[in-house]
Design brief:
By secondary structure, the chain is α/β, with parallel strands linked by helices. Helices cover 25% and strands 22% of the residues. The chain has a domain of 125 residues: Ribonuclease Z/Hydroxyacylglutathione hydrolase-like (Metallo-beta-lactamase, Chain A), CATH 3.60.15. The mean pLDDT is 95. It binds zinc ion.
């Protein structure tokens, strides 16, 4: 489409977890937010990839497990608001039950959280130049969401691949939903 900034995708992950920066020019979204106690690694990876922290407009956790949302509060302190979908709100306080004392986890507060219904995601993303939507895709946990860009790329967090999900009907339904939405945007 004429006038739209092309979307670029960079992986800033570490310790066998992917953390994605989706960018429309210098307007950026971080998808999945680091292990607890690793803010230094995250910042170093962003810097190495030429991504200034201040250009990240939101951080989105596909789900609230410590390897996907462990730095959420510290990123807020760095100036990055946390984008939370309505289906995820109740899972946030549960996450800390998995934290061990040595993890250096900083608990997620309500300050700086931007909570929206899943149905509003396309509108919010368009405000930062990203054409796509966030879908509720349970299957790994009940509160998992996926980012689906209009170019067809999907960021599904830990949603088990279909080939491994033959007896996980919730996950299979999520893959079906992703496919339907993808097809409807083409
Ligand atoms: Zn997980």
């Amino acid at each position: 489409m004429v006038g739209e900034t092309p979307i670029t995708v960079v992986n800033v992950g570490y310790r066998s977890t992917n953390y994605w920066v989706i960018s429309a020019g210098t307007s950026r979204l971080l998808v999945d937010i680091g292990w607890p106690g690793t803010l230094g690694i995250m910042k170093a990876n962003l810097k190495r990839m030429g991504i200034p922290l201040r250009e990240i407009r939101y951080a989105l956790a596909t789900h609230y497990h410590i390897d996907h949302a462990g730095l959420a509060e510290e990123m807020k302190r760095e100036g990055v608001p946390l984008l939370v979908l309505d289906v995820q709100v109740d899972a946030i306080p549960v996450m800390k039950t998995w934290i061990k004392p040595g993890d250096n986890y900083v608990d997620i507060t309500a300050d700086g959280n931007v909570i929206i219904p899943v149905e509003r995601s396309r509108q919010l993303l368009s405000q930062i130049g990203i054409t796509g939507e966030i879908l509720h895709t349970p299957g790994h946990s009940d509160h998992c969401v996926s980012l689906l860009l209009d170019d067809g790329s999907a960021f599904t967090g830990d949603l088990p691949p279909e080939i491994h999900a033959f007896d996980n009907f919730v996950a299979l339904a999520s893959w079906r939903r992703l496919r339907e939405h993808r097809a409807s945007r083409r």
